[in-house]
Structures are given as C-alpha cells and as structure tokens.
Amino acid sequence: MSPSDKVQSIFDLGIIWDAHSGFMPDPAADLRNLQIWRDANINYLSIDVGFDLLPWQQTVRTLAHFRHWILAHPSDYALVSSADEILAAKASDKLAVTFDIEGMNALDGRIEMVEFYHRLGVRQMLFAYNRNNLTGGGCHDDDLGLTSFGRQVIDEMNRLGMFVDVSHTGARTSMEVMEYSDRPVIFSHSNPKALCGHGRNITDDQIRACARTGGVIGIVGLNRFLGDGRTDSERLADHIEYLVDLAGPRHVGIGLDYAFPVDMGGLDTLFADNRQFWPQSEYPDGATTYYEPSQMRELVEVLLHRGHSDRIVRDVMGGNFMRLAREIWKQPSTPAY
Ligand SMILES: [Zn+2]
Fold it and tell me: Which residues form the domain of 245?
C-alpha cells in the first residue's frame, strides 16, 4: 500500500475525533464555519458552549442557538448521543456533534442541571475553567481540592453517562476526581508539562492517573501549550509520542481547541474585568496561533512516517475516544432531541 493509500485508509476505516473545539460561546457565532471540520474529513466534534467566566444563562442561550442551527442543517450535521450514531453520521457523510461545557458554574449550584444539559446534548463537562468554583480548583488558582458538591456532580455524571473531564482543572482536584470517579476520566485538551511547562499543561502523575482510570488525554493545538511557539504536525506528533510512551497508545487522542472569535458585545467588559482567568504570567501578550483541522491529514502522515502502526494511529486519531463513548455514554430513556 502506498503511503497516501495508508493515510486514506486511516480516514476510511477509523473515526477522526476532535474532543474540543469550536466557537466563542455566543449566539453570534457563525456556525457555517463548521464546514471546516467537514472539509478536513473529521467525523466527530465536541463544541464548547460555555465556560466558567460566563453567566450560566449565556451557556443556555448558546446551547439553544447551536442546537437549533445544527438541527436545521440535517443533511450535513447530526446531533448524536451514542457511538453507533457517530458511525451512522460518518456513513451518511455528516459531522457528528455533541457539546461540552468548561467548568461547573454553568450548573448554578444545582445538581439537577447536569441532567438538563445532558438532555440537550452535552456529553462532556470540565470541572473547572482555570479558576476555582463550587466543585473544585482551577489550574490557575489556589486549588483547594474536590468539594462535596463536586463529588455529587461526579456521581450524577457517572449515572447519566457523560465524560468527566479535568482539563483546565487544578492538579490536586484532578487527581481527586480521578480517584473518586467510578468511570474513566478524560483530559479533553491538555498537553504534557514535560514538553511545555505551562500551567495549563499536566504532569506525568496526572497522565498516569488518567490512564489508570481507563481515560484518554487529548492533545491541544495552541502554540502556548505546544511550546516553542509551534503549531506544526511534527510538534503535535512529539506530544502524542510522549503520551503514547508514558500512558500507552490506548489513552491518547486529539482535542484541538481550534476556535473562531466573535464580537462578544456587552460581554467585553466581563472579559476585561476578569483577567485573572488568564494570568499575565501564563498568557503574555502575543498572538495565539492554532493547529488547524485541515492539518490532521498531515498529522496522520507524520505518525505513520515515524513508524507507528495503523492500529495505533487509528486509535489516537479517534478510536480511543470512540471506545470511551461506547463504554460511557448511555442512551437516554426517552429521546433527547
Ligand atoms: Zn479550553
């Protein structure tokens, strides 16, 4: 088989999975840009609909709009709730979509909100977004650990069948979540600190603990977290190889965090007043650059060229997250959508 045939077979036979990307969570986002993932032959995308800085009402507003738009474009997109529905979407050339929320402030302190979001298509929730909240600590805060409300949230997420996600979460809280959860825990978009010493990246202990739960770590494509200002496929492959060696090839995936800015109107002041979410020491001035979904084909080429087996490359590009979806996501007892 020629090298290009081999690359094509990874795309044909596997599921290409982006565990976290999308838009600034706002109804002003132009969702026609989802075509970028379709053009890149990506099969599944988790779209961010909120993060802890924003009021919970903004998350609901965004979720309502994104759901409505996706359901209004059924020939190109499918709002899915199971691994089988992802396979069906691929077979009919649609991008499969679910949603994620970065941080538990979206719950407004109410446990029943977990099920509410689940019913609306959220399949992944992060414990924190950089700062502490009611459930635990953020990675850019004085992490006080998992709270009793946080433990209730894990119980509820395990009951419903959602990905418990500890990207952006403080190291101590993330370890306590991984210890407590009955089900595998993921880092949807976090890179190894050993290759880039940013406070958003994760230690070898966190990586090993995630693998012990049966979870998956998604490599994120921002220059700040990849190191050396790079966003090229060779650099992504370096991070992937580090995780494959440390955690094993069954525990590595991709969560690009490719994002489109939108005009946030009245929320601009909120951002300006809350710079502590992105401390200057960790986020010095300078442009954020992104690894683009269209580069995923080149990433497959690089991984194969470096001698990784077809099986390992398929697993990293999406097979591992697909396995978790099969294991963790449950069909709601009544139709969700
Ligand atoms: Zn993020």
Answer: 3-263+287-328
Please tell me the distance between residue 9's alpha carbon and the centre of ligand 1 in angstroms.
31
What CATH number has the domain bearing residue 34? 3.20.20.140
Q: Is residue 205 part of a domain?
A: yes
Q: Ligand 1 centre from 194 Cα, in Å?
A: 19
Separation of CA 260 and ligand 1 centre (Å): 13
Q: Is residue 282 part of a domain?
A: no
Alpha carbon of 274 to ligand 1 centroid (Å): 16
- Per-residue pLDDT of 184-205, as tens digits, reads 999 999 999 999 999 999 999 9
Number of domains composing the chain: 1
Asked if residue 218 lies in contact with residue 19, where contact means CB atoms within 8 angstroms, the answer is yes
In a domain, 315, yes or no: yes
Residue 266 has pLDDT above 80, yes or no: no
Among 322, 335, 334, 332, residue whose Cα is nearest residue 89: 322
How far does residue 307's CA lie from ligand 1's centre (Å)? 31
Q: Say whether pLDDT at 120 is over 90.
A: yes
Question: How much of the chain is in helix, strand and coil states, percent to nearest 5?
Answer: 45, 15, 40
In a domain, residue 221? The reply is yes
